[in-house]
Amino acid sequence: MTREEILQETNPAKIWRWIRTHPDEADAEVATHFNKLARADYLSRHPDGGIWEASPRDPQK
Fold this sequence. Notes:
Radius of gyration: 15 Å
Low-confidence stretches: none
Helix content: 55-70%
Distance between the termini: 48 Å
Oligomer: single chain
Structural class: mainly alpha
Number of helices: 3
Order of helices and strands: HHH
Mean pLDDT: 84
Strand content: under 5%
């Protein structure tokens, strides 16, 4: 797959495999595309937000 084809891909697992096998071609745009799809996929399976929406711990406590 080419970079342009990856930017059209909708399966985050395929994009992740491509990033791992083409590190020199994977740029910020590809990473952003992957992150958007991966987050949507995760939240579709965890409607409460799960770990993705977890608040950072307060270091003062």
